[in-house]
Design brief:
556 residues, alpha+beta, six-stranded mixed sheet, 15 helices, 27% helix
C-alpha cells in the first residue's frame, strides 16, 4: 500500500487456526489486526485436532508423486457424500470452496505460514463414493520446531488426543494405526506435551504443529496484536447498521478496537442451550473434548446484530462416541477395535459400529433413534487396548466401566435386554472370526482400517469375537470436537447474512463458527480445516486495501 495511506484495521474474534490465518492474510496485505482470544491459550479446537486439511486437486500431492486428482473428481466426491440433505448444500459456497482451496493452500505456503505435506496412504472417508481417492487429499504440516515461538510456546494449546511429536508417516511406517500406543507416543487420551529429538528440537505435529506454524507467522507480523483472555462481548455499529468494531472484556478493563470484524470463535460445544437447539441432544447424551472456551460466542454475537444460523442435520454432524471420565469426557479408537460392539437398549446392533459417520446417522435417525447406546467388549479387548487413558490391561477408573462374568450380567446392570444381547453377540462372533460383518459392513472402509484399526490383528483390523469373560460395558454419549457443522450463516466468501440473506456490512465469519454449508450434509475429516483456511484467505483478501502489496500465490 502507499506510504501515505492509513492501514485499515481488522478485528478478529478467536485465535484458532482460521482466526490466525485471517489475521496473517490481512496483515500481509496491508491491514493492522487485533485478535481477541477468550482463553488464556491460543489454537482453539484445531490445536487439539489431527491437523488434517482436506484439499482436492492440491499442489502438494503432485510434488510428492501423487497426480490423479482433478477439480471434476473433487466436486463429484463432495456431491456424492452430500446426498442425505440436498437442501443443506449451498452450491455457490461449495463452488467457491473447491475452486479457491488449492489457491489458498499455495498462498499460505508461499508466505511462510506452513510447509505442507501429504498424509501418506490415507483414503477419503467414503471410499465407495463417486470421485473418492485412496490418497493425496489430506494435507498436514511438516514437523514444526516449537522453539520458534519463544515465550508464546507456553500459550499454545497442545493436543491431549494425538501423539504430538510423531508424524503420520512415522507411525504408518511402523505398521501401527495412528492411535495405537507404542509406549513413547500416546494413544488418544494419553497426554504428551511435544516431542524432542537428540538436538533438543521441540517437535510439534498434528493440529498442534499446524497451529504453531501459523502462530509463528503471525508473530512475525508487527501489525498483528494478539490479546488472550479477552472474550468479545459486544459488536459495535454505526447509525446505518454497519459493524464497526468490537468490545472485549479484558482481565483489567474492557477494550475496544474499531474496524471490520471477523468471527472465528469456532463451535458451540460447551453451550448446552445451543447443543439442544442444533443437535437435539441433552446433557446425558452429549459432551465435548474440545476446549471449554467453545461456547457459541460467534453465534450470539452474530444474532445480536441480526445475523442468522444455518442448520445442518444432526445426523451429519461429526461427533465421536465417547464417555464421561472423571471431571470431563474421553474418547478413543476402542469402539472400532476388535472384540467390541455397539448396541442400543434393545441389545441389538444398529450400524457399522467402527465408523462414527454411520453411528451418528443411525443413532440420531429421526424416524428410529437408538439412544441411549452402549459399548460392549470382552477381556481380550481390555488386555490388548485399554480404554482412553487406561493402558492395556489397566484398571478402569471407578464408576466408568460396568463389568460382569457374563454378557447377561453386564446387560442387566446397564439396562440392556440381556437375552437379546447374547443373541446379538453370538451372531456377530460367527462372522467376526472370519473378519466379516455381513449385516453392517464393519471392516470394509479403508479410512477406518488405517486410522482406527489394530494393524496387527488378523484377518481384519477392526473385527474380532466378543467371547472371553469377564465382559465390560459403558453407556456412550456423543462427543463434539469443535466441528458443529451448524453455525453462523455466511455466504460463499464469509459475509454474515441476515434473515433476508443479505450481508451485514462489516461482519464476516470463518472456521467452524460459520456453518459448513459448502459441504452440506456431507463430511470428511479435514473439511473443517480446509474450508476454514479457504474462507480465511478469501476474507483477508477482501479486507485488504485496494493497493495492497501481497504475495500472488498463483505465481509463487
Amino acid at each position: 500500500m502507499s506510504a501515505t495511506a492509513q492501514r485499515p484495521h481488522v478485528v478478529v474474534a478467536g485465535a484458532g487456526l482460521s482466526g490466525l490465518a485471517t489475521a496473517i492474510g490481512a496483515a500481509a496485505r496491508g491491514c493492522s489486526v487485533t485478535v481477541f482470544e477468550s482463553a488464556a491459550l491460543v489454537g482453539g479446537a484445531a490445536a487439539y485436532s489431527g491437523g488434517q486439511v482436506w484439499v482436492g486437486d492440491n499442489h502438494v500431492a503432485p510434488r510428492e508423486g501423487i497426480d490423479d486428482d482433478s477439480p471434476v473428481l473433487t466436486e463429484r466426491y463432495v456431491r456424492a457424500i452430500a446426498h442425505a440433505a440436498p437442501a443443506a448444500l449451498d452450491e455457490r459456497a461449495m463452488a467457491h470452496w473447491l475452486a479457491t482451496a488449492p489457491e489458498a493452500m499455495r498462498y499460505w505456503e508461499a508466505i511462510g505460514a506452513i510447509r505442507w505435506t501429504v498424509i501418506p496412504g490415507l483414503a477419503d472417508y467414503h471410499a465407495e463414493a463417486d470421485g473418492a481417492l485412496g490418497a493425496g487429499r489430506y494435507l498436514t504440516g511438516e514437523v514444526f520446531d516449537g522453539r520458534e515461538l519463544g515465550p508464546w510456546r507456553e500459550r499454545l494449546r497442545v493436543s491431549p488426543y494425538f501423539p504430538v511429536g510423531t508424524t503420520y508417516a512415522e507411525m504408518f511406517r511402523a505398521g501401527r494405526s495412528v492411535n495405537r500406543d507404542d509406549g513413547d507416543a500416546q494413544a488418544f487420551g494419553r497426554t504428551r506435551p511435544g516431542g524432542t529429538d537428540g538436538a533438543g528440537e521441540d517437535r510439534l505435529t498434528f493440529g498442534t504443529g499446524v497451529v504453531a506454524s501459523f502462530l509463528a507467522r503471525a508473530l512475525r507480523e508487527p501489525s498483528i496484536e494478539i490479546l488472550t483472555e479477552h472474550p468479545v462481548t459486544e459488536l459495535l455499529r454505526d447509525g446505518a447498521g454497519r459493524v464497526t468494531g468490537a468490545r472485549a472484556e479484558g482481565p483489567d478493563a474492557p477494550v475496544e478496537r474499531h474496524g471490520s470484524v471477523v468471527l472465528a470463535t469456532s463451535s458451540y460445544d460447551w453451550n448446552p442451550g445451543l447443543v439442544e437447539e442444533l443437535l437435539g441432544l441433552g446433557p446425558a447424551d452429549f459432551g465435548s473434548v474440545a476446549p471449554d472456551s467453545l461456547r457459541g460466542d460467534g453465534i450470539a454475537l452474530a444474532r445480536s446484530v441480526g445475523g442468522t444460523v444455518a442448520v445442518i442435520p444432526p445426523t451429519s454432524v461429526p461427533m465421536l462416541p465417547g464417555w464421561e471420565s472423571g471431571a470431563g469426557f474421553a474418547y478413543g479408537p476402542e469402539f472400532a477395535r476388535p472384540h467390541a460392539v455397539i448396541v442400543d437398549r434393545s441389545g441389538r446392533r444398529f450400524c457399522n459400529d467402527s465408523y462414527w459417520v454411520d453411528i451418528v446417522a443411525k443413532a440420531l435417525a429421526p424416524d428410529a433413534p437408538h439412544l441411549p447406546f452402549f459399548l460392549i467388549w470382552d477381556e481380550q479387548h481390555h488386555r490388548k487396548y485399554g480404554l482412553g487413558a487406561v493402558p492395556p490391561g489397566g484398571d478402569y477408573p471407578p464408576g466408568t466401566v460396568t463389568s460382569a462374568p457374563t454378557l447377561h450380567g453386564v446387560a442387566e446392570r446397564l439396562g440392556i435386554d440381556g437375552e437379546q444381547l447374547q443373541m446379538t453377540v453370538a451372531e456377530f462372533n460367527k462372522h467376526a472370526e472370519q473378519g466379516e460383518d455381513p449385516e453392517f459392513g464393519r471392516g470394509t472402509l479403508d479410512y477406518v482400517l488405517r486410522f482406527y484399526g489394530d494393524a496387527g490383528h488378523r484377518p481384519n483390523p477392526v473385527l474380532g469375537p466378543v467371547a472371553e469373560p469377564p465382559f465390560h460395558g459403558l453407556r456412550l454419549r456423543f462427543l463434539g470436537t469443535g466441528i458443529g457443522s451448524s453455525g453462523v450463516h455466511a455466504d460463499a466468501t464469509g459475509h454474515v447474512l441476515d434473515e433476508r440473506g443479505t450481508p451485514i456490512p462489516g461482519l464476516y465469519a470463518v472456521g467452524s463458527c460459520a456453518a459448513l454449508t459448502a459441504a452440506g450434509s456431507g463430511y470428511n475429516s479435514g473439511f473443517a480445516l480446509g474450508r476454514g483456511l479457504t474462507l480465511a484467505y478469501s476474507v483477508a483478501r477482501e479486507l485488504a486495501p485496494p493497493d495492497a502489496e501481497a504475495v500472488d500465490a498463483a505465481n509463487a
